[in-house]
Amino acid sequence: MKIDFQKSGGLVPAIIQDERSGDVLMLGFMNVDSLQETQRSGEVVFFSRSRKQLWKKGESSGHVLRVREIRVDCDADALLVRVEAVGPGVCHKGYWSCFFRAVEPGGGAKVIAERTFSPEAVYGSEKRQ
Amino acid sequence: MKIDFQKSGGLVPAIIQDERSGDVLMLGFMNVDSLQETQRSGEVVFFSRSRKQLWKKGESSGHVLRVREIRVDCDADALLVRVEAVGPGVCHKGYWSCFFRAVEPGGGAKVIAERTFSPEAVYGSEKRQ
Predict the structure, then answer these.
(1) How sure is the predictor about B107, in pLDDT bands with cuts at 50, 70 and 90?
(2) Whole-complex ipTM
(3) Which residue among A1, A57, A118, B2 is the one 20 to 30 A from B104 at the CA level?
């Protein structure tokens, strides 16, 4: 089974889902190397599109994502990574999930979750997740 | 709140999650028009990267995705669409979820779900989902 990395220029979207609650926590991208490193280490490693390098989730915060299972879709061009999320949340804005806002019909967005940690305390001036 | 469509060339990944079970059903892409049409109609409309046109999920199968909530992530470059999935499954291979295979350490993939419908009966020779 070959993952199709070509459709998005060497990357595939990787959905991160908390295994226990089913909550979708975030979406990142992986290239061949980051998927291999994720499988080797058992913790999620993305490819950062802005920094153009591998990026281990939790490298500065300690909020790593322990891999429980990796699933692939019918077209082999998207991944679903089921994880145990270590720490109070994955989002650098201080939330359990990066999807903490609902899009409203008029185009606005409404925060629908409570903060679970202080991003300043965890990250300081460091903005990496 | 502006969705950032530029990071992926006019598209954002849209994760489809069954509202009731929490199951992740599929991942598609949306451009500005497909998001607007999704919001207007209340049913999910993707942008097909292969056919380069809007693609209403369920247009041939009847397996439409009724929108319950649209969430956006911290960077506003990914969507989580929580839906009621009409019908026995979303996958054109005959499964409830497109993520019906687990990636194995050696590089293989193992089917981890049962078929919920016959794709031939639903789609015939038509391969659109």
Answers:
(1) confident
(2) 0.95
(3) A57
